[in-house]
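PROTEIN DESIGN WORKSHEET
SECTION A - STRUCTURE
LENGTH: 206
TOKENS:
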């Protein structure tokens, strides 16, 4: 296993097939949690300065929450390929980022996500799957696809753990504000705990 850290400089976030038409067909995660986590991943792609490639299949409409989060960032429409690397436009967009590490999220886990992840591994990429921003038709289908990907060498992660890996030091860089904004929006309880700890530390220092 490649233990090199995922960084904004070596990573491309790839989001695939977050289609409104399929959202209510998946049962591996509650819809509201899935939407929150997928939107957080989109905001990471915009805010952390990684490579960032968003694509959907022909005729699909991207979640409006993601459309709002990415602003004018390009959305690539591909054909019927389950493996996005078999689409020349998507493959070139990922290659053009110059990144060797990919963080992939999308739907469905057992469909386009699985086959795209395996396609990325065959091309030599180091791949993380953002598990809580990815959904399958059923808990079992999601779990079996996750097992297959992990057995093939994929790194499983969650959006917040991955954001923490990209930030690495909460006190450094412009991305620190992006990091804490994400926590504030998506994990308000955690943000409250952080604020309380900081307040206690300042009081003790005084």
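SECTION B - SEQUENCE
RESIDUE ASSIGNMENT:
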């Amino acid at each position: 296993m490649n233990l090199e850290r995922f960084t904004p400089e070596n990573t491309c976030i790839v989001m695939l097939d977050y289609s409104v038409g399929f959202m209510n067909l998946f049962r591996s995660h509650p819809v509201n949690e899935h939407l929150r986590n997928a939107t957080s991943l989109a905001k990471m792609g915009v805010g952390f300065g990684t490579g960032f490639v968003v694509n959907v299949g022909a005729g699909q409409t991207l979640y409006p929450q993601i459309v709002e989060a990415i602003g004018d960032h390009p959305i690539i429409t591909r054909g019927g390929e389950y493996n996005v690397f078999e689409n020349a436009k998507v493959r070139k967009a990922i290659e053009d980022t110059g990144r060797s590490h990919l963080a992939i999220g999308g739907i469905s886990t057992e469909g386009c996500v699985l086959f795209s992840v395996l396609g990325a591994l065959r091309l030599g990429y180091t791949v993380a799957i953002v598990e809580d921003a990815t959904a399958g038709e059923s808990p079992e289908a999601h779990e079996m696809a996750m097992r297959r990907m992990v057995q093939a060498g994929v790194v499983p992660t969650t959006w917040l753990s991955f954001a923490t890996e990209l930030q690495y030091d909460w006190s450094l860089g412009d991305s620190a504000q992006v990091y804490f904004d994400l926590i504030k929006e998506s994990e308000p309880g955690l943000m409250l705990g952080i604020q309380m700890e900081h307040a206690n530390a300042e009081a003790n220092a005084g």
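SECTION C - NOTES
The chain has one domain: 11-167.
The chain has eight helices and six strands.
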